[in-house]
Here is the input.
Amino acid sequence: MAIYAAGVGTHTGPAHRTRTRVRQIPRLAEIGPFPPPWNGWSTRTYFVCERLEELGCELFLLLPGGEYSPSPKFPWHRVESARALVVWLTRLAIRRYLLHLHINAQNLIYPGIAALSATIAHAFAAPLVLTFHAGLTQQFFPAARARAARWPLRFALGASQLVICNDESVATELSRMGARRVAPIPAFSVQYLAEKGHPIAQLEAVARTAFPLVVTYVEDRWEYHLPSLARCISWFLAREIRGHVVAVGGGAEALGRLVGSVPDRCRLHLVGTVDRDRFTWLLRAAHIYLRSSVTEGKSSSIMEALCHGVWVVANETPHHPPGVLQYPWGNWRAMVEAMSRAIDKARQASSPPRPVVCDTVAAEASLLVETWLRHYGRRSRVHELPIAPRGPCAIYGRHVRPSGPSYPG
Here is the structure.
């Protein structure tokens, strides 16, 4: 009897030569955040893991730090030190796992982890894939801003069999920094639209009566430029007597301190970090979604808001889809003007252009499995493994460009 990735198959032949053989299936280690909480990279990682499981892959989650315990659906281990990280990366590399590492260039930690992973992958001949999150402007990216992160990033990019990012302009810069094979795959996928949402009890009445209802996601970091956001919110609360603002994310309390004790402060709701289903409910209830981050690429939350017919106000970047009302980052007066336009459009009950959404999760999962097969293909029977079509992506030279089936938002 032969056990294949797609199921169980029978080996026939002479009785004296019959033997049992076990097919080795693709093994992938996801290194990075994983739900809970259901936000940011972790949600995307969960969707990709679900798809990989459907393809018959063996998965392992390696979580650097964090305080939450993930779902027991997949085996996992949390590492709290560099030594533990080295030990576990070595174990996974020896056991023929593909190391799939999620990084950005917002600090020096991720480039350092990437360089360490690349060293171990090279030493034990294991495949390495990097998913590079966020956009073209980060603390240590692109190359002109890299400074101390330049050489760790160059080494990790050059040692990776595949680098995944969410935008063509980011892919071009990664290629200049030494990446051999880059796949620009948008982070937003049809799986995000399947969420029904779960209401937040203390905001249900607000969602029914407020107009306009503004939702903003903030973190207490430089790229969100909280001073300009606070001035814009103060202006909005003073002008719109029925308007409410809901601040979501780890920077909500910091934003509240900057807004101060204005007369209309009671209409500013500081929710903090919420799970994905509650954030989805907020987006669907909102009339305007306000973003102030300058480092993101093609933001999944912006795409989701547009798919739900919500007007979006965000800083100027080349990554935003049509329909986003943009302003120069850090310019609170320009932010106010963009907000005024969004309020007028909301009053007219008009909807922004809805983007076309692809199944990019399937595309990423297929590329990961193909990378494992390309590395270990000499010892594996490729035709026996359940590889799905690449879906909305096709390979052209060094890049993977969108094509194929898509779905309306």
User: Anything to note?
Assistant: Residues 194-347 form a domain with the Rossmann fold fold (CATH 3.40.50.2000). The longest helix spans residues 360-376. The chain has two domains: 2-189+359-408, 194-347. The CA atoms of residues 65 and 196 lie 30 Å apart.
